[in-house]
Hints:
The complex is a heterodimer. Chain A is mainly beta.
Amino acid sequence: xxxxxxxxxxxxxxxxxxxxxxxxxxxxxxxxxxxxxxxxxxxxxxxxxxxxxxxxxxxxxxxxxxxxxxxxxxxxxxxxxxxxxxxxxxxxxxxxxxxxxxxxxxxxxxxxxxxxxxxxxxxxxxxxxxxxxxxxxxxxxxxxxxxxxxxxxx
Amino acid sequence: xxxxxxxxxxxxxxxxxxxxxxxxxxxxxxxxxxxxxxxxxxxxxxxxxxxxxxxxxxxxxxxxxxxxxxxxxxxxxxxxxxxxxxxxxxxxxxxxxxxxxxxxxxxxxxxxxxxxxxxxxxxxxxxxxxxxxxxxxxxxxxxxxxxxxxxxxxxxxxxxxxxxxxxxxxxxxxxxxxxxxxxxxxxxxxxxxxxxxxxxxxxxxxxxxxxxxxxxxxxxxxxxxxxxxxxxxxxxxxxxxxxxxxxxxxxxxxxxxxxxxxxxxxxxxxxxxxxxxxxxxxxxxxxxxxxxxxxxxxxxxxxxxxxxxxxxxxxxxxxxxxxxxxxxxxxxxxxxxxxxxxxxxxxxxxxxxxxxxxxxxxxxxxxxxxxxxxxxxxxxxxxxx
Lengths: 154, 385
């Protein structure tokens, strides 16, 4: 890390989580990110984000916190050319079928936003990183998914 | 429960009215409905007021219904504020109907009023997206529609061109509607060549921001006969549901289909009896899916319905003769009641150039919001002449 020099007095940017309690952001390269979800001890229903009550069983104290490793396949996706203020367009929005059994919405990153970049059924993995910058230049940190790199060419 | 009839409806034109306030828009719709019903205003005993986004975009941060009713000259009666995203308007109607059906009151007003345009478009866009807590992650409704549509296109061989035909039909209907925000008929090429929002959706397939208000006055049949000689329109059903979660390996009935099933049951009619419908085409192609979900055609036949012109004003089962959300406009909280106003006009034979041929039974479908993986709310209303 280099300190900002006096001639370049840009203030340090903050990293701000988009929401607390949603995912774990690795603090070193050895650590892996995960999503914080929940699983019903009665029926096995998996949710992300975490739910306190299982929507299938509707009983209290059946949902247990669960770390979701963030491996899954693209269920469906769309390249979206409209964006809310502060967000980049185009973006790739998708639903991911997680290995653990839940189907969740996510942005998909790490590839050109075009219909040709992705295929339904493609393996994707979780990344925690910058979603966007806010008006003050702070980094908003969120979860996204990116295609799993196939080992080597050929 | 007592029969409930709609004795009067009214709406403002939908559009961009920077100079008009929520109370101003609401007042116009209320007094148009009062005039239509030929009712002494003091006979209105209770009001339900639907608004979704006014709290964020206008100076009114609470009790919007009371402010709007005050501008219209109504004081002292119970006023209840209703928020259910895009389905707020029909939710207000449902509550007003229950007041009359239960015998609690004889005459009730349902009003929907919304102002989405302000001097800062970015602020309006953010406010409209705030119906879900997911906007902060970058979640976009058009992309959600797009994903559902792509799956459906693949399953039944539906084409983008067929989706464009829905927008073309609705723009043609909107051109005949003096209350519509957009009155320019579009061609298939216009729609297909407009900017891609999220394939297969293009700009002209999507509803946009709008300002406006719509109102309905409901009462008992006996009371109504004292006020008006116009044909009375019965609210045969007004059924509201919320969304459910998708459970892996279990069938998930779309909430529109669930609301429709309940409404048909309550009204004692089937989809084959529906002569005219106003449906929630936030994105025009969704209309094709709704044909199936509402039972207006069999699964996979939505494309054929539009190809054969069956849902044109002159067709077998006209859908969105008003122009629908994309052409008529979509001032969120007002939309459900504008759908009701259109069906009332159609059933009475007062719809002018866009009149369908002698309808007896009409249906509206009005859905909104998003929770986990389903719409937050959906109401299906069946009206009978």
